Structure formats: structure tokens, C-alpha cells
Amino acid sequence: MQALIAGGGIAGPVAAMALQQAGIESTIFESHARADGQVGSYFTVTANGLAALDAVGVLDAATGAGFPTKRNALWNEAGRRLATLPLDSTLPGSPSAHTIKRSRLAQLLQDEAVRRGIRIEFGRRLIDATDAGHGRVTATFEDGGEAHGDLLVGADGVHSTVRRIIDPAAPSARYVGLTNFGGFTEDAGRGIEPEAWHLIFGRRAFFGYQATPAGDVVWFVNLPRSKITPEERSATTAAAWKRQLRELFVQDDGPAVELIDAGELELAADNTHDLGHVPTWRRGSMIIIGDAAHAPAPSSGQGASMAIEDAVVLAWALGDEPSIPDAFATYERLRRARVEKIVAWGARGSSHKVPGPFGRIARDVMLRLVFRYLVTEKSLAWMYDYRVGGEEADGREAMTAA
Fold first, then answer.
1. pLDDT at position 186, please?
2. First and final CA of the chain: distance in angstroms?
């Protein structure tokens, strides 16, 4: 069996390595150049996602490229700590969540897939695909070339082409009203509580920062505003973006202004989208995984972890079930309810980050109550304690939740 995988970011290489374990060959087609590991922002992979990386043998490499993050600390604009949210799993022996640069993880996964003999073709943008039935799929690329296989896996992100091919009426990604910026400031981590994202509900925007073990600081800004156009993005320099960002926080307590002034902008003007209920994930021998099927808002902290889980579950289903349609049905049955619950949870957390003065008072009271009594390590176990684990040789046994 030969799988064609559209997308070489996070889910694509993991799917290819898991498929290889199941005895299925694959080729990855990535529209962009090889990840350089330097550009872009950071995200956090929690224990459930790390367990799925462990299933394909890349856990140590992935955690070695990042640093532990055991909790989120929430602060208001006046510098008052509102709550602490643990990110650890309750299962014994679980790894701590790790914060990793997205492009660094993508590069690591691409390199490992190639080392294992998996072919990746860069600069190959998928524009169409046809399914002739009986496991005969033809993928067509922007450069005029074609590829043929038994199935097509769409791991091509929130603006997925494969999703549209499977269902021309499929929903598009929804702009959540936030633009995202990310930065890095050297030698600024002294005195900052380690192994924690510090998240500030500012008067005009949302700011997050974390000290690295080396003493640097990674940070991000979520800015509520209209969608940034390509024209505005191309016309605005990094220095101009930094000036705009610092002005957002001059009235707030905390280190935002200092970190922005002294830092380097690594991600600018990224419009944030989510994707909730996608009615159709599969048709014939074509299927979507990861952000192509379900993209949560960044506040969920689960986008990468869900995509990694998807990749492993799909591969094991294909290795275990007697036919591609049976495997696809098993995958969807095991994944849909979980991922849609996480997307809905993340959407609630992304709304109303910047209320007015009276709203801020109510928010502070509410957050203290919510994180003391409702959002606790125990209440989040359904998310962090999920495991694709089990024996790799037996897909049904492997695809069970903790």
C-alpha cells in the first residue's frame, strides 16, 4: 500500500513514520521549502501529544528541542496573580509538557522521517486530487506533476486543499478576531518563575512570556482587531510592528514593554483561525487529519497534540483494519468526539480576553473561582491523560484512551 501525504509540517511526518511502523509506505508532499528551525513562534505540547510522539520513537528528540512547561500562571493588567493552571498529566510517569518552536519541531520530524527512508518532496503544492476507486488516487500539483497512490492523507493545515477536494461545501476556517505575534528576548529571564507560561490579561491585548532554561525569554501577543490583510503585512516593517505592540502595554504592569523593546520579532501579523465541526472528514480513499479537520484556538494548547494523536491513530487503524474505508471509519469514530470537544473548549477560552474596566473586575473574580473549583488538574484529566499508547503491533489495543 502506498500513501500520499499532503503537508509536511507536524502531522504529516508523524503520520508517515506511524504508517511505516504499520508496514505502509508513504511520500510526503510539502508546499513550502524545508523547515529551517529558526522562524516562527513557540507552542506547548502536552503529555498526550508527547505520548503519541513516543509511539513513533521521537519523544526524546522532541523534548530535547524544547523546555519543560508545567503550568500557566494568569495575571491581570495590574500585576495581580489570578490563578495557576497545571499542565501536567495525572498519570504516573507522564512527561511534563514541553514548549518547542514550531519550525524546530517540524524540521526535526522531517529530518527523522528522511533518516528512516521516507521521501519528502518540498515545493510541491497540491491543487487537486481524484479518486478512481479501489485504492487508486491521483494527486495533481501546481507544477503540473502528478503522484499516484492507494490513499491520500490531507495534513495540509487549517486552509486545507484536501478538505475542499473531499467536500466542496466544507466549512472554511473562522477568523477568531485575534492576530498573533511572537518574539524572543535574550538574557531577560532572570527573576522570572521558571517552567511556566505567564499570561497577562492586558487592557488592550493579551501577552504571554516564558523564561527558557538558558535565561532567555520567549513571548507572544494576541491582539484583538480586524483581520490583517496581505497588503498591510507587506507594508509594515518589524520595527513598526514592535512600536505598535509596545504601545499596547504601556499602561499595564509586567515586563511586556521591556521584552518587546529588547526582543526580536520572530512571528508577525499571523491571523488566528479555528475550525470546529467539519461534517465530512473522508471520501473514498481520501481523508483529512490535524488542523485540516479540526483547528482549535491557540488558548486550548492542544492544536499540535491533537494533530500528532490523529496521525498515530490513523496509521494504526490502516494497519489493523481489513480495508481503507474500514480504517477511515475507525479513525473517525475514535477521534471526532474528542477533538470537537477540545475545539469548543478552546473557543470559550479565546473569547473576551480584553473586556472594559467593569468587565475586568468581573473577569478577575470569575477566573479566581473557575480555576479554584472548576478548571483543575482533575477536571482536565480527560485532555491530558488521553493516550494513543498500547502495543504498536495491535492497532485496536493501541487506540484506547487512558
1. 97
2. 31
